[in-house]
Amino acid sequence: MAHDLTTSAPDVAVIVSTDAAEAAIGATGLINCTPVGMVGYDGTPLPRSAMGGATWAFDAVYTPTNTQFLTDCTAEGLHIISGWELFFYQGVHAWALFSGTPLDQSALRQALLKAG
Asked: Does the structural domain 2-81 have CATH classification 3.30.2290.10?
């Protein structure tokens, strides 16, 4: 994955580490692509104390929509993107790919949030 990221974005520094707090040092963005924070996997993959200096965070977890990771990132002033957006756009793009018919994204978003 690191090789692919470096190949596709050579100006981006890619760091591989087994210590999340160490890897976060100097990072401008934080991404959680683990199940930690998902229903049944409580917690956060990164301590709040390691979030300083970053400006944004993305959590691939979408159930629940607000994880401890995102709560901590918000408290640290980071701009966050919830995994719910991943869930939503996977469906939108799958619809377009398989059906080829138009989709009212606004209405779908409202209906999903209401069904919540």
From this structure: no
